[in-house]
Amino acid sequence: MRMKMFAAESLETAKAMIFAEMGDDAIILSEREVPGGVEVRAATDKLGGGMVPSESRILARLGVAPPPRLVESPIRNRVRDALLWHGSPQRFADRAADAGIATGFGDGDPTQAIATGLESLINCDPIPARLIRDILLVGAPGHGRTATAAKLTRRAAVANSEILPIAADLDSTAGGAQLAAYLEREQDQVRSVATPDELFTLLKQIRDDEKRCVIDLPAIVPFDQEDMASLQDLIAVIDAEPVLVISAEGHPEDQIEAARAFARCGIKRAIITKLDVTRRRGGIVSALSAAKIAFSHLAVTPFIGGGLVPATPARLAQLLTEDAPAHVALRGAA
User: Fold this and answer.
1) Pair 49, 84 in one domain
2) In sequence order, what are the beta bridge partners of 213?
3) Is residue 285 part of a domain?
4) From CA 142, how far away is CA 158, in angstroms rounded?
5) Are residues 146 and 17 both part of a single domain?
6) What's the maximum distance between 2 C-alpha atoms anywhere in the chain?
7) Which residue of 6, 120, 182, 231 could cross-link 150, Cys pair, CB 3.0 to 4.6 Å?
């Protein structure tokens, strides 16, 4: 007989999970209310519906020691279910849940368990307000590169530093006017270039003056080979760090493919946008993890001032706790 504990928000939801995994012949052994829902123990004595032959017997016949098994945990189930609700792929949700209970989760707080699990799967590397290198913002259309350039510029000013905003208007889409509007400046106060040669000349002048800048590139479609080839060429000749600006919106598989495409261009850090208008945020977290791109900052508000918060596993965990609103991670924004 195989027994398993299921955790859910309601008894009906728990039963649906039990019958989906164990089959219609599953038997309810016990049920009890817990903070945030119920725990239901169920059993089945038939193969199928989630049953598999005894792994230990098979391995014993082969002379192989079975791997250690994690004890079934209601907290693990809540972590896994929260990540699945947020759109994380099954494998990522299982890995985060397993890591969360394997390394300890305090008093059983699922948010802390998610944070602990994420620590083993992701890397967080915020961009300092006083730039060490120039920043080259790249990303797909509509993901908020220009707003992010304005936020980085405003953040530096608050830190008594200076970043010169540059609109690389290489596709003639009036990027300079939009950037100026975000910064509430006159258009002639924002540097705008129309060709790569103009960009190289401007960069030389800025560096001769020992200043730093953030460059807002035109939109790049990660699934367009020509776009990606052009991006690689530009990164190769500009001594600036390419930083991905990527929205939390979208299908998880599309997000993974896009993140991996940008990673192949040498991108190591990313700023996540539109967290304030996205309910399910697990796809983008698993995507950057799969692409081995570090989490730099989280954009949890559309406002230019106070619009970026440094990424940490704890802040991401707050955003991934069931249906948490984005403002729970706002503390520390700059």
Assistant:
1) no
2) 164
3) yes
4) 27
5) no
6) 77
7) 182
Co-location of 114 and 245 in the same domain: no
DSSP for 37-60?
Answer: EEEEEEEE-SSBTTB---HHHHHH
| Residue 273 bridge partners (DSSP) | 247
Cα 212 from Cα 197, distance rounded (Å): 19
Burial class (CB within 10 angstroms; exposed 0-12, middle 13-18, buried 19+) of 187: middle
- Which residue did the predictor score with more confidence, 331 or 199? 199
Q: Is residue 170 part of a domain?
A: yes
Asked if 141 and 249 sit in the same domain, the reply is yes
Helices (H), 43-188: 55-62, 74-85, 90-102, 110-119, 145-158, 175-183
Place of tokens 């994380």: 88
- At 193 the three-state DSSP class reads strand
Alpha-carbon distance of 74 to 66, in angstroms, equals 24
Rg for the chain, CA atoms, rounded = 24
Count of residues in the chain: 334
Q: Is the pTM of this model over 0.85?
A: no
Q: In whole angstroms, what is the distance from residue 254 CA to residue 246 CA?
A: 12
Domain shared by 195 and 256, yes or no = yes
129 within some domain? no
62 and 189 share one domain: no
| Same structural domain, 114 and 260 | no
pLDDT for res 74: 79
The whole-number pLDDT of residue 322 equals: 55
Q: How far apart are CA 213 and CA 203, in angstroms?
A: 8
Angle between helices 252-264 and 282-291 (to 10 degrees): 30
Work out whether strand 269-273 and strand 309-310 pair parallel, antiparallel, or are unpaired: unpaired
Collect all residues with Cβ–Cβ distance below 8 Å to 57 and sequence separation of at least 6.
Answer: none
**Do 59 and 81 share a structural domain?**
no
Q: Could you identify the residue written with the tokens 């012949």?
A: 25
Structural domain containing residue 8 = 1-69
How many structural domains comprise the chain? 3
Q: How confident is the model at residue 72 (pLDDT cuts 50, 70, 90)?
A: low
